[in-house]
Predict the 3D structure of the following.
Amino acid sequence: QGRSGADRIGRLCLPCNTSPCRQPNSRPAMAGQPARSIPWCTLFLVACATTCQVCVLVGNYQTASAMEELGESTGGWSRVGLGIARSLKTELDGKMQNVSTMLLDGLKHVTVVQDSLDGFLSMVGDKTDEAIGQSKELSLLQREGPKGLALLQVQQDQAAGNATGNVSQVLASLTPMIMSAVHNALQTVMDKVTSVLHLLMEKLRPALDQVAEWVHKFGGKIQAGISEFSGSVDKVQKLFDQVMKQLNRGSPDEALEAEMLKQTFGLFDMSNTGKVSAEDLHQVADLYHISSMHGELPEKLVSKYDADGDSELDEAEMAKFVNDPAIPGSMPVLLRTYSKRLAEAGGNVAAARMRDEVAKAVVQYFSIVCAKNMTKVGWVAERLGNRSLPLAFTGDVMIQLCLSEDDPNKMTTTSVGKLVIGEMYKLHPRNTLNVLDMLSNTTYWDSEGFDVHDQPRCVEKVTKWVTQAESLVQACAANDLQHPSLMELSVAFGHKAAVDQVALQALPAVAARQAKESVAVFQMDKLRREEERHRSFFKTSTHELLLQRLTGGLSVRAATKGSGAVERATKSGIHARPETLEFARWLSYNVTATVKLRQSQCFEYSSDSSSAVDSVATQIEAMVTQVKGFIDMMMKYASPAGIDRLEKTIEEFAEHGMKEVIEVVEHKLVSLLNHSAPELEKAVRHAAHVAGEDLGRRIGEALGSPMGEALVPAVKTVVKSVSNNSAAQDLIGDQLSNELGKVVSDFTGKAVEKQAGKLVDELVDKALSGGADLTADLVGKINDKFGEPSLIQTVDGLYHGHTARRLHAQVEAFESDDVDEILAAVEVRAGRRGNPLEAVGGAVAHAWQGLIKLLKALVNLVPSATSTLKFAKEQVSKLSSNLDSVFGTFEDKGPPLFQNIASIYRVIWIAYFFVIVPLNLAVVYYAFWAGGYCGGPQPIDEASEQSESRTFREKCALCCKCCGSCLQNFHDTSLCFWSVTVLAQLFVLIMFVVSIVLCILSGVQALLLSGCSEVYLLADDTICAEALGTVRAFLDTFFVSSEAVPLGEVCKQDFLLTCDLIQSKMASSTILTTVFSILAALLTMQLIVDSATLHEQATWRRKAHAMWLKEAAGVPDQASGSTM
């Protein structure tokens, strides 16, 4: 009890001072002064908490670094997609264009081949007829037939002194001479025909070689690799989209949302009424494939947000409608789908080179833009109507508008053709009517490669669109138009001054009727031209024989004529003029800029680069399917065996075609002799019999008169013996001797005639056999010249004994002079035994038939193959445009987004760390201060007066002192303590919330890492390089950043190994941020508890120090009543 109050307070503070965490200082304190202590527990807690905060900072730094690398990887993969788009556009699209052009050139050259072959056959016939005409014998036989034999026989009798075998010799010897002349005249022409065929192969060979190359590139192995790679690209894109959407969850600003509503309201308003109805929403759901808007949902939503009760939504009501949870992301989905199709149309416009392709692409553009932007429709209509573009191109656009009126892919339910042509007519009525008048010309329709059967329907439809334009009625009423076609129609309806409404309504039907008549006249004229061509080429029987034996009785063009698709394909393949291509470039640039802007808006609004249903793999698969369809069509001729077969067919024709023609010409000549020989031999037989009768008669006469005279004396002697009348003896003797002479003469003549006939027959047989022997040498010469047996050999069979006897039997059997009956009988018997002439004449012309089949196959295949290739080319253009728009936006928005997020993330956590660390240091300072260091807690001088401040520094110090007087004077109170404690707990709560946020971010990181496990090429350099090599095998010009960088280095240089780059960082950052943030929050909470102990220690230390000061000053202790 004798101790002072300071000692008692010191004992009260002893448990704290002597605790294991706070040992007394080795330096002894003054007598009665509280001893200083080191706050080991606080130091341990602060050290642990700071260490945890450092780990959290390191983890978040790693996260920020991973985000930066994600941005770099996003840029790298964007360049991969853009590289594929670039190669598709410059390589595959260009090659397809070249193949299409080469195939069309080859198809056009087929027409040249047809004309060349027809011209060759015509010339063969002409030369053969000319050679026959130069031989009076064959000319006489060809012109007069069997009737000319008598004249021919007389000529030969006069020239050869009645030598019966000379006719046969002359006829047989003429054939090889004519064949030699024909062969020499036609060999040069045949060489030209062969060169034309070789030129056809030269035109087709590059296209077939390219198709053969595609056979390999579009084969199963490469396509499997491409399919896997495109699927990986899809996964990478979706992975990045998910990460960006998680990291960029902020709501779009009001300006962006207002702009999105402005751009999409026209798309929702399908009826163009200024308001959106439930029917409009149903049409939007069908056209844009929005599954969430099917069923009864549109009616429910319209009823829900229809504030004015008109069953339609205006813009203000639509602002609420688009944010309904039942249709999430409706605006970006709608606008992105529109932009995708617009990009496809722009890609087709940019890739088009032929006039029909540009016209079709422009119409596709119209079918999309008419859905929301009539201003641009007016721009394009102005170009089409102001004659800055060729009228033929404008006409093609009008025709395509008609043909695509029922296209299911158009983005509006209104008539696109009516809108466009109405706009053209409002701007340029005269030029529009000029184009309409041109459409009524069937010749123009055919020259542009359109089916003329579509003309009446389209002319009627276009005329209806024109007449429905409001400006048409106004212009006609003012009599401002003087277009001939309209004026003629108005006169037909009895309106000379102006076309009234009745006439306008009747114009489409009248135009259709006139178009039908024009088509009928055109087709008749076309048939007439074909007939005239045939007659000009093939005029004589020789021509018909050539066609019959070589081409089946038709001209080469007729035999190889395909459907009307051949002419349409060749005529539609017209290169667009420079001004048309310039217009296409302008339009494609405008489309590209619009698509880029709309994609950017969608990205900023939704934080993803594409819709969930968009797939690069699906688009590539569709493109590959179309190209493989074309390859399958061409496989028969594009394979090495097919190319060899084509070349073999042409070479076979070059080698044997001329020989087959010569055989037909020989057949012509031999047939001429074959038909003449029976009649000729009959004439010879008849002449022999006449000669025998004449010889017998002459012999009889020669024998009858001398024998009669010699018998007169003998007869008279006999008569004299029976009669003594001398006069009677003389009369009877003379008459009887004359009669006996006649009898003897007749008997002798008949006997001699019979023998003379036999003798003449034998002489004829010998003469014919001699003629056949003479032709043997000529036949040998022909064999030597043409290399194989000639048809002239059959002449030998006609003149040998057996054939002669058969003909003789026919002459005896048929007394009629009808040569046709004789020849028919001969042909029947010859056919039973196998007539060699008939066998040769009916032989198949293999070379010609093979060529005919080849040309026919080409004219049937190439048009459809070219059409398929054009469609595949459109798919390539669409794919490249979509890749450009998607990955272009990805490249523009992705890397900056990740970079900004990484920078902000890093700054936030640096700031957080530098806020936490000073607080920890403050706790350490407070702990040492409470333990007696740094002056320790001092008694409060309640009666201290403030001196007058004179300088600025003193004034500032006084201000701070006054402001801190609360802390100085009242920090020991319970109110101050618990207030600070509550604030500290709030700070700990914030730290705990931050740890929760970090756990969520860790979930995002885990999502990213789980996605990495599904895409192997993102983590393995070898797999990545092999995948890029597969793309290079498919597209030779493919590269990512630079052509100079080898593909093996691209994966690392362009940060394509996304998972390999971020996997370790993400894994460690996930552990560091989640575990240590929670530990830091717990340790900080423990520091709050520890700070309560420190506060209590500081309070009692202050009191002990105050008492110690009082005792030192001799002030009695109120507690004990003693003094020091």
